[in-house]
Amino acid sequence: MSIIQLIFFGLLVPCLVAQSFNQTHLGFPDSWDGDKYRELYCPSKNIPKWLDGYFLCQLSASYGNSSAPDGEKLSHMIDAIGAVGSFHVSNGQVVFSAQYYPARPYKIWEFYDRNMSKASVPFAGWSDYNLTAMSKWEQVPANPDSARFHPNLDFWKVGNRIIAGTEAPYWVGYEFDVRTLQKFKLFPFKEENDIFSTPRHTMIPISMAIHERNDADGTIWGSFSAMNFEEQRFYQGIFTVDTNGVRRVVGLYDYGAWDTNACGSNDEYIGDKTLLPGYIHSITSTENFVILPITSLLINPCKFKEPPLNNIRSAIQKGGLWGMDFYDMVPMRFLIFNKKTLEFTTQKPLEVFPSMFVTHQLNAFEAEDGNLVADMVVYDSHDPYIKYFYTDFLTKQLYPTTARVLRFTLDSKKQRVMYNYLIPQETISADFPQFNHNYEQKAYQWGYIVQHPFASGNSILKINVDEPAGSRNLEFRADPNLVLHEPWFVQKPETKKEDEGVLLVRGLDTAENKGVLIVLDAEKMVELGRAYVPISIPFGFHNRFFSKKDLGLPEGFQVGPSQYRPMDKKQGIATLPLKKITTILPSTSTEIPTTTTTEPSSTTTVPSTTTTTTPEPTTTSTTTKLTTSSSTTTTTTTPEPTTTITTSEKPVTLTTQTWTPPTTTTVKTTTVTLPTTTTPKIPRWWPLAGSATTEQPWWQKVQTGTTNTLPPLFPVSKSVEEKKVSVKPNESDNKVVEQKPTGGSMDEIYDQTLTALCSWIPKVFTSISNELCFKQGRTAAKWMAPIAQSYAERFRMGRANRKTSPNDNPNIQPSLKQMAFDPLQQEPIRFG
Ligand SMILES: *[C@@H]1O[C@H](CO)[C@@H](O)[C@H](O)[C@H]1NC(C)=O
Ligand SMILES: *[C@@H]1O[C@H](CO)[C@@H](O)[C@H](O)[C@H]1NC(C)=O
Ligand SMILES: *[C@@H]1O[C@H](CO)[C@@H](O)[C@H](O)[C@H]1NC(C)=O
Ligand SMILES: *[C@@H]1O[C@H](CO)[C@@H](O)[C@H](O)[C@H]1NC(C)=O
Ligand SMILES: *[C@@H]1O[C@H](CO)[C@@H](O)[C@H](O)[C@H]1NC(C)=O
Ligand SMILES: [Fe+2]
Question: Known PANTHER family for this protein (predicted)?
Answer without folding.
Answer: BETA-CAROTENE DIOXYGENASE, CAROTENOID OXYGENASE
